């Protein structure tokens, strides 16, 4: 187990959990249900999101064996059948309206066992979830070729015209009935929306009118594959042709291992509405040339070109030295669709070398350090406010609409708040435009603490601003509240004076700060003042209105101060 | 390291994802993981010249890359969201750096709030802080990144902590903070915008096992 964990770590996989079927059922449903379940050890491995070739056991084992130099990378071969003998998939122009692209291939004389069969189905599901984006981009269909006969037609028809027996069902249904049938199916109902409201549904027929599948929902029962299937017809349909090709390549490269002629795939021809034809799978091998110095330089190692070529070959990128020994030619197999730039090759070389074998050095870059002025001001104020006897709080930047409007006696439209489109809970509907609700909620959560409660926070609020490139901006606010048996207006006022003193802002109108009595919806009438400094209003202070206090589930008087500190930077 | 300005929680998908080579069909751009905004829903302004370059690299490739080969849509890039990582601020800084007349090496850092659309539980918050670091210079290597990370963690002697630092010698590094880190190991990882990428692991004496303390990588050319 340790060894495998190490191997995974080096290769870039995460061994998440070592468990067994019995353990899994035990955890989910309790020990009783787990009795009789398999005790065989299962490894849960986390595969990076861009490595589709490692999603099934076959690919994973192959990759690791090449990495350990136990086997050499197999060469995937495309066999193009003689003219007229291969399978053909004809696409009609109706599909353009709903799912225009399709690719196909054949696995000839394949031998399945229970494990291989399960793995085959599993890989399709994993690809569906991953690169196919839950079947939205690509949907995979695999069929027993011996039960049908080509040429096959991929077309789109009105729901009422499509009728077939879906997989594992006992009778025929029309397409519209099928949509209803699977509305409650926990697995399939998530895909219904992909074609539900389209006027035409995609469907694939064979030359006798047998339905192979209605992508992306379900295959026909007639063509279902079993452990005994010998010839498989694979089709991938979807809205993204690049991904469809990658998906097809992955499936055939992974499972062609079990064909009579291992690693050989029988090609199929796809005919487009305009008459053009294309042979699939592409199984393209791409050659890239990379200079060994580049690889060495980017990683910080110095390996000879031939040892670099060896490292890359271990990562399934067959390489050899060319030129005068100053270039490496790399062959990128169809299983590595994630290699799109030289830096991907550099990473693989580094992995094969072993990240932890690279010497750690410090760059010889000389730069001058600097703190952002706004943050520097914030840090200085924080220390002094704590020294003044106030406790710092750090609250959420997202809150409910009521928090910044109704509870403060204001209308939401007057707040210019930034609103979230997809909140998971009502607590995160808008971004805060004031720090006050956060502090009041903090006090409400700490009611049992001894009085007086003196809290402050210096943090960002967010408001809409049409002058910025995104349409909103942050302001750094400072907010303090005093909660006690008496409101303590004088304490909050004193705090303001202290802060201004620290900021070296004199208490006069011309070049300093003043306060003027005003009304505020959140404040007690006659106990509210607006603060002016640097030629603008920077905030308010006062005693909070009893309504506000009650709405935040508090019971004692409270005074508050909130100002924007950005003018003082 | 100079502090970067990060005082914008609201970010456009362009700076948060597209400029960082995260494809528009990537699961992280789903409703489930990102807070998208209803109001303001779209960013009015995106840098036109740069955006054209980003569009090309995603859809056709460029700068030595094959690209993702899909149809890149500007409407998707305009969608506003609450930033999911402070790397969007790094992207903006690197863009500014690129427009300078003469290149000068830089080291940037930031520590600020990020937002992920998750359900709250014992180990997950919807808002948390990330520490981010970037180094840009000529001739930087993966070994340099590892060296900086080692120095950074060795200097940390703090308890508890919050998530993420993203450091980039053209590379990011991320980490929760643990006390007295002495043993570090690096593991290959994947990020859409860095290659090579590494996860940083440290040996936790209390739990007696290796735990992930950060994520890092060298920015893709």
UniProtKB/TrEMBL annotation, chain A:
One of its GO terms (molecular function) is magnesium ion binding. Gene3D superfamilies: 3.30.56.10, Bira Bifunctional Protein, Domain 2, Phenylalanyl-trna Synthetase, Chain B, domain 3. Its cofactor is Mg(2+). GO terms for biological process: phenylalanyl-tRNA aminoacylation. InterPro entries: aa-tRNA-synth_II/BPL/LPL, B3/B4_tRNA-bd, DNA-bd_dom_put_sf, Phe-tRNA-ligase_IIc_bsu, Phe-tRNA-synth_IIc_bsu_arc_euk, Phe-tRNA_synthase-like_B3/B4, PheRS_beta_core, PhetRS_B1. Coiled coil: none annotated. GO terms for cellular component: phenylalanine-tRNA ligase complex. SUPFAM superfamilies: Class II aaRS and biotin synthetases, PheT/TilS domain, Putative DNA-binding domain. Its main location: cytoplasm. Belongs to the phenylalanyl-tRNA synthetase beta subunit family. Type 2 subfamily. This is Phenylalanine--tRNA ligase beta subunit.
TrEMBL record, chain B:
GO terms for biological process: phenylalanyl-tRNA aminoacylation. The gene is Farsa_0. It comes from Cochlearius cochlearius. This is phenylalanine--tRNA ligase. It is an enzyme of class 6 (ligase). The lineage of its organism: Eukaryota, Metazoa, Chordata, Craniata, Vertebrata. Residues 1-221 form the Aminoacyl-transfer RNA synthetases class-II family profile domain. PROSITE patterns: AA_TRNA_LIGASE_II (PS50862). The keyword Aminoacyl-tRNA synthetase applies. Keywords: Aminoacyl-tRNA synthetase, ATP-binding, Ligase, Nucleotide-binding, Protein biosynthesis. GO terms for cellular component: cytosol; phenylalanine-tRNA ligase complex. PANTHER family: PHENYLALANINE--TRNA LIGASE ALPHA SUBUNIT, PHENYLALANYL-TRNA SYNTHETASE.
